[in-house]
Amino acid sequence: MPPVRVRVFPILFALFLLIPILEIYLLVQVAGIINWLPTIALVVLTAVIGAGLLRSQGLQTYIRFNQALNEGRVPANEILEGVALLIGGALLLTPGFFTDAIGFFCLLPITRRPVVTFLVNRFNPLANMNVGFSATTRSDSTRGTSGNVYEGEVTQRPKDN
Q1: Do 106 and 84 contact (CB within 8 A), yes or no?
Q2: Whole-angstrom Cα distance, residue 79 to residue 103?
Q3: What's the pTM?
Q4: Model confidence over 57-115: pLDDT tens digits?
Q5: How far apart are CA 45 and CA 31, in angstroms?
Q6: Domain ranges of the chain
C-alpha cells in the first residue's frame, strides 16, 4: 500500500480561516451572556494564568530534561513536552476561548504528559524493538585523560511472542 500523502497547506489554510471565526463567535456569545467588560477581563485573566503556568511547567520540564541528560537517557519526552509548552503558551497569549482551551490542554501535566508519552512510543523506532546493550569500562590513559571509556555493542534480540 503506498504511503498516504497529507497536503499540509489546505489544512493550515482552513485552520487559519476557521479558528478566528470560531473565536469571534465564542467571544460574541460569551459577551452576550456576561457583557463585554467581564469577557475582556476573562480573556486577559486566562493569559495571565497561562503565563504563570507556562513558567512553572517550563522550569519543571527543564529540570527533568537536565536529569535525563545526567542519567544518560535521551530526553525525548522532555523535548516534546517543551514543544507542547511552547505551543500552549502561544495559544494562551492568543485572545479567545477556543485557543485558551487548547493552550491549557498543552500546559497542564495531566493532559500533556499522556499525549507526549503516546507520541514518543508511537513514533520511536526503537520502542517496538527488543534492543539490548552490553558495555565494558576501562580507564583511558592513552589519551592523557582521567575519564572512563565505555565500549559497547548494541544487539537486536527477537521479540517474545
Answers
A1: yes
A2: 17
A3: 0.69
A4: 999 999 999 999 999 988 988 999 999 999 999 999 889 999 999 999 999 999 999 98
A5: 15
A6: 18-125
- The secondary structure of 32-95 as a DSSP string is HHH-HHHHHHHHHHHHHHHHHHHHHHHHHHHHHHHHHHHTT---HHHHHHHHHHHHHHHHHHSS
Give the residue carrying C-alpha cell 530526553. Answer: 75
Strands 130-139 and 148-157: antiparallel
Q: 131: helix, coil or strand? A: strand
Say which residue the cell 480561516 belongs to: 17
Average pLDDT for the chain: 82
In sequence order, what are the beta bridge partners of 153?
134
Residue 116 burial (C-beta neighbours within 10 Å; 0-12, 13-18, 19+): buried
Could you tell me which residues are beta bridge partners of residue 132? Answer: 155
Distance linking the first and last C-alpha atoms of the chain? 26
